[in-house]
Amino acid sequence: MRNHLKYSIVAGAALLFILPAIFAQTANSSKPAGAPDLTGVWMIDHFQPALFPKGTTPPFTPWAEAEFKKADTKVNDPNLACLPHGIPRLMFVPLPMEIFQVPDKVLMYQEAGNQLRQIHMNRDHKKDLDPTYNGDSVGKWEGDTLVVDTIGFNDVTWLDHVGLPHTEALHVVERIHRADHNTLVDDFTIEDSKAYTKLWTASQTYHLKPGWEIAEYVCDNNKYVYHEK
Amino acid sequence: MTTKRFLCLFAIAAGLILASSPASAHHSTAEYDMTALTAIKGTVTQFEWSNPHAYIHIETKDDKGNTVEWVAELASIGMLSRVNWKRDTVKPGDEITIYGNRAKNGKNLMRLDKIAFANGQELSANVR
Fold this sequence. Notes:
The complex is a heterodimer.
Chain A: H1 2-27, E1 40-44, H2 62-70, E2 97-102, E3 105-110, E4 116-120, E5 136-142, E6 145-151, E7 171-180, E8 183-191, E9 200-208
Chain B: H1 3-19, E1 38-48, E2 55-61, E3 67-73, H2 77-81, E4 95-102, E5 109-117, E6 122-124
Parallel strand pairs in B: 3-5
Antiparallel strand pairs in B: 1-2, 1-4, 2-3, 4-5, 5-6
């Protein structure tokens, strides 16, 4: 009995210590009260290797058209070198992602290469960004929709799995919303005036996968690996 | 060894490696004949438990009695784990039948749909 009381006091003290931290986290959450919860493991509903299917023509600039002709999925796909996919391609990979919403960030933990994509909720783009594979993503809520704006890319990646090129001028806007409990939709607007003569759009639907966990994914099939530099 | 010579050797080695690759990273099903299912019975020689794709290599005999190798391409390790595959699901020496969609280029390569073990038990390789 005495021990029981002792444990209760210790547990109570521990709770008093933890509660302020929990409340602080809630108050500082990137998910405003009433905003949709995007957390969970999501998997694409169907694989779209080409964002411009056969019979459709991308609005290429002459440079981009020449680059696309050089693209060979068996030879110079940057992903063969185990490099990051970049945005938007990462969002079209046929592997699951887990979304977390934490203070100031929405995080997308991708099974593909176990990459963690950060969407910064409470800041604007930084000035003079150093180009990176996945760029600099900032997000805001517009009603039920998470609007993500990404710039600051390097020009190494492809936009899809068949070789759509881009330059460092790439600008991607995503509108992500939960169509229903089990369905997430990401609508993309892609702009790169050096590679495309006009804006174009793409969309990907994801299904919720209760019980799935993100697996370790190491790009270890090194018989594919090359490095072209 | 000069850098140039090293790079040259590296390029040749990379070329040989790429030439023997069954397929590239995540890719479409366009290179496989998705309209027909091919069944090949044989003996497992290797199970590559690897990303982005796992591979089963089997040996079988053709009409003339010659030994022929077939390669079946599977999904990634993580995706296969979700449908009950493990690194030792098949082992060298196992007699199995592989069912899948053959490569359009005529190579002895298929996109695996399922396998059947010697006792007739089947295991799907469809991950979605």
